[in-house]
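Hey L., structure's done. Input below.
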Amino acid sequence: MPEPKPAAGDWPNIDDYAIIGDCRTAALVDKRGGVEWMCLPAISSPSVFGAMLDRDAGGVFFVRPVAVERVKRDYMPGTNILTTTFHTAGGGCMRLTDCMPLVPDPQRHLQLEPTRELLRKAEGLEGRVEMEVLYQPRAAYGRVAARLKKRGGLGWAFQHGAHLYNLLSDVALEPSDARDRLTARFTLEAGQVRWFSFTYANEIGVVTSLGRAAEKRIAQTARWWREWSVRCRYDGPHETLVKRSMLTLKLMTYAPSGALIGAPTCSLPETIGGKRNWDYRYCWPRDATLTLRALIKMGYDGEARSFIAWLLHSTRLTRPNLLPVYDIYGRKVPSEKTLGHLSGFRDSAPVRIGNGARDQLQLDIYGGVILAVADFLQGGGELAKQEWSLILGFADVICEHWREPDNGIWEMRGGRKHHTYSKVMCWVGLDCLVRLCEQDGLDLDVGPYRRERDAIRADVEEHGWNEDVQSYVGVYDSDIADASLLLMGRLGYHDPNHPRITGTLRYIEERLSANGFLRRYRSGVDHDPSEEGAFAMCSFWHVDLLALRGEVDAAARLFDHLLGATNDVGLMAEEVDPRTGRQLGNFPQAFTHIGLITAAMELARAEREKAGEYEHQEREEEETA
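Output:
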């Protein structure tokens, strides 16, 4: 019988993946039952399965029918447990359930569990299904091939340093001659269940049980996720997709610290064959503004508190200065490196880990953090005295440095410039601080902050506004359209219907729109002539601003159009190819899903307001009649 092999050269699309996780790490599973990306022990650790970035060297773990005719995927309602139903040409049908178990806190000390587990359940539904299995772990981003050892009834073990990996299954697995992979062929009958438990531990291994014990772990995990998701307060259009976005954000929040990562992947290209391939497995303070707003309004006050705690804790290490990006523990991220032994997704090299943005200056993040804290306080949160001193330190940095050029929100690598959005966010930070002090009666002389705030505004109006194009522009004294300026109408700098916001909106639509999606800026602005996709989060900012302006019908139509780019399980990457609708970039992208949630909340509010106006108008007409 031929041995199953990785599908060399047979690449899925980025939107063919789905994500599972345990709030500490995550795995990406493709439509064919292949785990093609998983990092251990944490979400930003080196990969042990990485076929997503190299079909041969990356490592893979697939459980799938030999011949597939049709596939349907979904998550168990209210959870991050993935189910994939395969239909075969011969009429057979089976379901693959992928789960990363979560042990409820009250039971965590009552039972011995592995550090991480990927639990896979293959269940026959109809007829007979011929199945194939390939387990080929490759640690350290594919550099280390497994040396698998049989441990009797305890499964197959592989050790790399202090890292212990184990696969336990009730299917007979055969090792290759080099013992670097396991394979199997078996027939799954209707009503039969077969199990695969891949576990990780550090130094001391723990082997799990299959059968009823495995069913219990899935049930416990489903209950945990449902108890979390039922707290979501959203009531508006596309509720299923909005709640899926919330579940995805929770999955990408590193539970021990409260940090929200940008994405669980690295080096998925923004253009197939291009070089815009970055590592997003870290945490960006600039995301704080909209993240906190979404968490608070959706009813997740505990998560908001955890995120603020991580934000303020991590910044203590560099106080009063902020780094553009931190790791999940609040440390400086690793320096950027290229993994030359990996070919990249669809041969889109280079594969990069670490992130060069760590050494940039991004002035907008100071205002973003202060605004996030303001939202937290207005939502009922409280700050300790020491935390207040941190906020004042951030405001002092703004006052001292706002006149300097920076790398901007888009992390430009072609040198520092005076970015309008960065200046606006400096204004926002000082404006928030002044208003907080005035509202709470804090004993603080806000005069210097007020003067610097007003100076920033005057500077933006003189250099950030282009009279010829009737729009704010991305870089001072230029005509560069920049989608980040759509946020000016939300941030309180101007009323959303102010003539200058109207002009900016129309200019961005004219210059950056592509099939209903928005690019962040035009090709070449960042000195890279290669094309990139439309930015999904910018497209959701477009919806948000239209709704804020009262253009409700246009916002609703655009929102529906954008949601057509989500994949079959409601996930979105960083970018979308506006010509094909295919997703591009790291996947799934936290900021994209935050943009979706924020746009949905604003649209729901605007629709309720519009409905109230209609009701009021109808009552007046009835009274007049």
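The chain has 14 helices and 28 strands. The mean pLDDT is 92.

-- N.
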